[in-house]
Amino acid sequence: MKFLLVFDFDHTIIDENSDTWIVRCAPERKLPNGLRNSYQPGQWTEYMGRVFVYLGDNGVKEDEMKRTMTTIPFTAGMIDLLGFIGENKELFDCIIVSDSNTVFIDWILKAADFHKVFDEVFTNPAAFSSTGYLTVQHFHAHHCAKCPKNLCKREVLKEFLDKQLERGVSYTQIVYIGDGGNDLCPVMFLKKNDIAMPRQGYTLEKKISQLAQSLSPVQCSVLVWSSAIDIMSYLKLLIKE
User: Fold this and answer.
1) Average confidence (pLDDT) over 155-171
2) Quick check: is 58 in a domain?
């Protein structure tokens, strides 16, 4: 009896987008229009690369970035939920699949002492260069037409499950917790016994209900949450069964 919990990060674990929060470090806490308008669909990682260059050019250092990032609030109930998962690690494997980056996620989880709750974090690799600029790379290359070119979460999940099977680990149920449009691809990969938990009022919930209306619903069960306490209540039921 083991359950796999798959978490998105931005607007799921934390109540903000880590990539837009970092703009608070910029002069006057905003980006110049030219930079802000340079984003092209599907190329968020490239856009963030330009943002980090701008911050570096303006003398924003690693410690200031870290201070800013660790002030991001967790989503309502999330601290209780992660505490509960941490106390029941023998029942739950827990991973993050996120379009944020390793530096931000690492800072935020370590500052709140939640890094031990997660077995693995799959996100865009980031590091500070010798000149002190933050650089971010694509997580992987893939052939999925539905996903941004740097990350297909379905592929990440599938590879993780395959590796776990090789180690002799299979899961009674997968619980996928997310909010965004890029969470739909992995949700569509889930089986009948699994459960998708989209955040109420966010893109993922809307996309799942559009599929249901067009009579091509997802295979898995769907349970909407607005506070992470809703997720914790479900997990408590799971382990009672």
Assistant:
1) 97
2) no
With respect to residue 91, please indicate whether it lies within any of the assigned structural domains: yes
Residue 113 is labelled as binding a ligand:
no
Catalytic residue numbers? 8, 10
Tell me the residue range of the domain where 105 lies. 2-15+74-124+146-239
Our CA dihedral for 126, 139, 106, 9, rounded to 10 degrees, sits at 130
Q: What is the CATH number of the domain that holds 82?
A: 3.40.50.1000
Average pLDDT over residues 64-88: 97
Give φ, ψ of 14 to 5 degrees.
Answer: -100, 155
Domain-located, residue 180: yes
* Cβ within 8 Å of residue 152, ≥6 positions away: 140, 142, 144, 146, 185
- What's the rounded Cα separation, in Å, for the pair 107 and 100? 12
Looking at per-residue confidence, does 107 or 142 come out higher? Answer: 107
State both tokens at 147: 């996903």
Instruction: Flag whether 15 is marked binding.
Output: no
The answer to whether 19 is a known ligand-binding residue is: yes
Annotated binding residue at 183?
A: no
Find the mean pLDDT for residues 209-216.
86
Amino acid sitting at position 163: K
Q: For residue 82, give the nearest of 110, 104, 123, 102 by alpha carbon.
A: 110
Q: What is the pTM of this model?
A: 0.95
Examine residue 28 and state whether it is found in any structural domain, yes or no. no
